Structures are given as C-alpha cells and as structure tokens.
C-alpha cells in the first residue's frame, strides 16, 4: 500500500493504522522484520574454525598421506578436525545462550494503532506506523516527524556530531538515533532492510572484534608462520630428498615418498593450530559463564577487554544507587499560589521521567491544568518550563538548582543556596521549583530560554537507595588497582555523599561546570579528582576520551540515555538492563539483573581468559619454535627428520593439545599486564631452541653410534615426550591438585603408548639399545636443566614487567621473609633429586627391553612412575620455595612414593648404588621439611603479600 498522504494525513497521524491496515502491510512484506544475529553467524563460526590457511595446509598434507597409503601418519588430520569441531560446538553453545538472552531483552517500539499507544517489538513495526517518541527511546525505523514538542534527537552514532538536533514537522528521523529531549510522533517511511535501524542494530549487537591483545598477538604469530612455512618447507623437502639419494634417484627408486612424509611431519609440527582454537573456546566459554550470571556479552572479546581496564567510570543513578527514587520532602521558600497543582501536573505528565513520577503520590491531581507553551526537560539543560492556560499563571520551572539559578544555588549565604547546600550534603537529590510572573513566549520556547525574573518557590528532595553490593564491588576495584571515577548529572555534594556511603574516600565533588575546555587540562583534573557532578552527556564523552588520551583503558557504566555516547566511546561499555534501549544497544556488556556486584566477576572472567591463554600460548609457541628450529637445522645439515607424523601426534596431543584445553579453563586471577606476546615469546623462543638443539645433537650422536632409523626415532620421541611434558609441568606452576591430575593423566597415557606392544608397533617404537638409552637419558637431563634455567630467567623477566604496575601486582607490596637455611637445602635437594629420579626413571623404563618377559610390565610401570614423580617433585620445589604448605604436603607424598618405587627398582634391576643415593636424598628432604622448628614456621600458608606476587609471576 502506498504511503498515506494529503487529506488523510492528519487522521492517520492522530489515530494511527487500524488492525486491518497493519495486517495488509504485514501480508505485503512491509514490516521491519530483519534477521540480525546478536553474535557471530553460524557461517562465520564455521569459517573461523574450519576454513583457515593452516587448516588448508593440514588438509592438503592429510590428503597427500592418504594418497601415499600412509593413513597411520595422518592422525594429525583427525586431531585438526576434532579441534575445529570442538571450537564450533563451544561457540555455537555460547551463541545460543547469548541469542536467547538478547531476544528476552530486546528493545521495544511504541506505536499508535487504532487510536491507542502500544509497545511492540521493533520487527513488528510496519510502513506508515506512527511512532510515539519520548526521551530515552531509540528510533526503530526511518520516519518523518508529524508532531513535535521540542523534540531533540541525538544522531551522533550516525553523523558523528555530538550536539542534539532539533526536529520539526516533516523532518526525517533515522533509525538508530536517540530521543534525548521532548516528545513527538513520526510516521514510518522505510522498514526492513531499507531501514537504518536494522543495520545499526546488527552493528551494535553482533560479534565484533573489540580491541583484543590476544587476537592481535596470535594473528601476528600466524602471519610470521605463514610467511615462513613455504621456504622452510622447500628447505626440508630438499634435505629429505638428498638423504633419500638425491632428487633423481629418490624418484626412480620410490624413496621420495618417505621424504614427503618426513617433510609433512616437519611442516605440520610448525603450525600452532590449537592456539586459535583455545582462544576461541576461552572467549566463548567465558561469555557463556557470564550469561549464567545474567551478564549479556554483546562482543565475546569484551571478557578480555575488561581485564585490561584500569579506570572505571560509574554513573551514580542506577549504578551506585538502585535507581529507585522516591520523594522525600518539599521545603517551601516563598508563597506562589497553585505550586502544588503544578507539581501534580509534572508528576502526571505523559513523558514524566522517573524523578517526576515520584511526585504522583504526594501531589495527586486536583485541578487539571491545560498547557499553553512548554519547553520539555533536556538532560543537557537539566530543567523544563511550562505555562498554562487559566490557573497557575506565569511560567513554572522545574530543574536542577545550579542550572536554573546558577551560583545563587550554591551560595550558602543566601536562603536558596543554604537550603540546597545543606540538603545535598546529606546525600539527597535536590530539584527546585521556580516561578516567573510572565508566561513563556514563542521566542523563548524556540530558543529554549527562561523568562526573566524567575524566583525559587520550593526545594524538592529525593532519596535513592544505595545498592547493597556497591561498596563490596568498589573495594574489589580498589584492591585490584583499578581507578574509579563517579560521574553524575546530580549535585556534586549529593554525589560525593553517596560516594562516601559506598566507601570512597572523597571530600566534596567537583562541579563539572568548572571543567576546562582543553582536553589536556581535563585529563589532569580527572587524575586528581574522583567524584564529578553536574556532568552533561557531552562532558561524559569528553571525560572518557581524555582518560584514554592519557593511556588509560576505560570502562563506562550507566543506564540513562545520557550515558549512551560515553558508553560507546569507552573501551568497554557496560549498561544496566533497566536502562534505555539505546544505551543497551551500544554497550558491550549488559547487566541483565542490574547487579553492580557482577562487575568483579566479569573482571575475574576476563583475567582468567587472558592469563590462561598466555600460559597456553607458551605451550603452543614453544612447539612452533622447536618445530621450526628442527626444520631449519635438519634442512641445513641435510639430515633425515627424526620423527614420523604419527609420532609427533603423540607429543602434540598428550603434552599440548589435551592439557591446554583444561589449562585454558582453570581459575586464574592474575592481573593483566600489557605485553602478552613479548612475555610468551620470552619463554617460548629459548625453550623451543633448547628442544630443537637437544634433538639435533641427539640425532647426530645417534647416527655416529650407528642406531637404526627406528631406534633413532624412538629415542627422539622419548626425549620430546618427556621434555614436552616437563615444559607443560613448568608452565602449570604453581601445581594444584587439578593440574597434578591433568599432568599425571597425560604421562600415564604416554607411558601406555611406550609400554603396550600393540601401540608400540603402531607408532613404530623400538628398543633404542644400551647406547641409545644412555644417550636419551643424558640428553633428557641436560634439556630439563636448560628448561629450568629458561623458566628461571623468564620468571625474573615477568617480575620486572609486573613491578611497574601499581607498585607491584595489583597493589601488592612487601618483602619475602628470610628463608631458613635448612629449607633452602631441602629445595636444592628437591631439584637435584627430581632430576636424578627423572633420569633413573628413564633408565628403568628402557630396561624393560632387557629383562625377562614376566618383568616387562612391572619394570615399565616402576620406570614410568619414577619419571612422573621426579617431574612432579621438581614442580613442587618451585612452590616449596614460596612457603606453600600444600607443596610441602604434596612433596612428602611424592617422595614417600618415590622411596617405595626406588626400593622396588632395587629388587627388579641392578641399579642399587644410584638408587640408594636417591633414596637417602628423599628421606633427607622429608626430614628437612618437617623436623626443624624454623622450617615448620616457614610453611604457614600462601597469604603473605610477597608470595602472592610470586604466585602471579609463576
């Protein structure tokens, strides 16, 4: 149906569409329905997890191996597919939760149909519907204004202009813009895909890449690997063909296939496939967890972003206070006939805001008043004015005292100033009712200017209930070194009183009318003061921008339409669900139940994501570094690659892929510090080089010893498995019960692969022989020692990084108590004993090839358990050095089990002299930890500040 025009326009604008006309337009498809995902679309999720460059490389390698008939070496393809499936499933689950929450909390549109106003979902709006617009509404569809009463619209999110735009009849209002003042009606002109509302809603609600150091850093690593994988692949292929006899001979004799298999093993090891997966899963699971706490995450990386916030700006009303305002009292200052009837009209007005509505009960309508001229309330002006026909003559003004009467409202020497100052200092919100003898003129209405001669009639006070959880949440931010700025449009004294009530140490609030125009000077004021009152919406945005210009990561919370611009400008915008639809649309987080106490949980979730991904990234990046190092070294030295792809699948899955999944989801309260990639690479590069050089040296020596190819590969796999599981243990510190279970399970699985004949045959694992066993043991011990040195240096580097943040970590300060000498000796023995037992365990494990068949299983189990306990002992030594009582208990258990294992090994093998030394050392460590009184006092828990800081750096 064509848009109504001409003579029927007035009737349509007054009555709106009839039910029949609405049905006709719905059947014609002229609705505002438009599918806009509240998170990433299904296709985007699949594309991000499946159709990637590296998945393409892995897929090509997988197909090549299948064509060569080497399906046993194509296990990495199954692992890559599993990673993609897991990533998709996790994100789909998070998407479903977010979509459900978004649907339940979608904004509403107010329309006039059959002569009555009704609220409907924005998709139900049809062409020619009459939208009824009031302050705080987000316009649902493009429309033309048909009536206005000082209607003002904020189009900043469309045009970038922050000033509100006056709208007159026949002006166009675009969907996505926000009504900030006045009221009016507009007939819908464009709906559906044509309407800007749907484009804006999709942009505001869908998954977006907010500033994410994790994603940026990981993408950078992927680009580096992507650039290097081509030339390195050619280098490796050339070396493997040379080893096979040269390109011509290898092709003629068919040995080229093994060269291709070796090259594929080298290339697939270089790709950190799981790192992208773990990041996506961590974001998705974090968003799903927050959804369970009634926090809607519009953009998944926001859970990381809030972990980086160091200043949080809070709107008082609806954030520190419950947002429920009630009338307190009216202090009459002068006699003006009919002033109570005027207050009754303000309370009953159709567009009355929450404050004005509080006047309905104490001032019921007695004498109806008819409006002659009116200037509606504006959050920028903070007052409204009205003149009536008949009774209540003159002009009546209701607004903030300072905005109506200026300095007179804060002068304690005057009657008005004394009353306002006294009442505001008690934490009450104050409004003033003023009166001028002359009515409003048309020019004053157009210019939004008050008439001359306004005098104060009464000061009205309102009280707000402080949120019971606000003080606890603010204390959390204070302890975590996050600065708090309270920004409100209310009287500075009122805001300061509320701030003191929730635990902030402030005197009087800063009056925003005195804020400097220069952004640099504004930033300096924001650094010095905590509470600001009489802040306009534009000033809120400027304050956020000024803090960002000084290097701060800013979060902004609020619920009113006047907060929308600042919320969108902030790094992380947080809206209350009770707030305006426009505010929720531009926020990245929405507190659905309005509980301010959720913010610490959101911060903790973000910190868990970024800290765990940093830990996990070191696992994957270490693998990428040693795989790249091996490819380059073996390519330059023209040596046969020492692994089959199936053998690398063992170490990748059991030392990186599976444990990383658990580590990425464990609790972690480490405070965010910039420099994620730098810290990760500071461990991954040297650790990866240690592994690459160790395996290169092993291969060269093994070749000189005359080990067969299968024996050499078995030894290399053992070395990589043990060193990789040790890297996992090192990066899991401090080792908790859950981490012990994860690491232990992975090691047991590795032991089963090396012990069970069917698995050994499948993975082509053979006895490396006496010389091979000795070489493997020496290389493992040296590599573990080098990894410990790398981790020691890395921890010192991290501590230096953390030292520059708030005087430590999260404001933590203090010096480490002096450690008793006997405990130091025990720690040294723990490290030495752990390395010794690890080496002994390897020797015992390899002894299974030289004992009688009935002893193979017990020797294998004793050897594997000894290696595992040796590794866990060294891990416990790190926590022991910080005085952890849990570490002392766990170490005692480990050492007691080791004593039993050493006794069993003495009965099964001929390693008595060395085992006796290890047994004595274990008993000595237990005695050092439990017997001396000074040692017992050292283990008094993990609560000291210095140990907490050390726990973060670990």
TrEMBL record:
Indicate whether Transmembrane helix appears among the record's keywords. Answer: yes
Q: Does the keyword Membrane apply?
A: yes
Q: Which domain of life is it from?
A: Bacteria
UniProt domain P-type ATPase A: residue ranges: 104-202
Q: SUPFAM superfamilies of this UniProt entry?
A: Calcium ATPase, transduction domain A (SSF81653), Calcium ATPase, transmembrane domain M (SSF81665), HAD-like (SSF56784)
**Any transmembrane segments, and where?**
50-68, 224-248, 260-285, 625-644, 650-669, 681-698, 710-728, 740-760, 772-790, 822-849, 855-877, 889-908, 914-931
Q: How does the protein's chain sit in the membrane according to the entry?
A: Multi-pass membrane protein
InterPro entries assigned to the protein according to its UniProt record, in alphabetical order: ATPase_P-typ_cyto_dom_N, ATPase_P-typ_P_site, ATPase_P-typ_TM_dom_sf, ATPase_P-typ_transduc_dom_A_sf, ATPase_P-type_domA, HAD-like_sf, HAD_sf, P_typ_ATPase
Q: What is this protein called?
A: HAD-IC family P-type ATPase
Q: What is the lineage of its organism?
A: Bacteria, Bacillati, Actinomycetota, Actinomycetes, Micrococcales
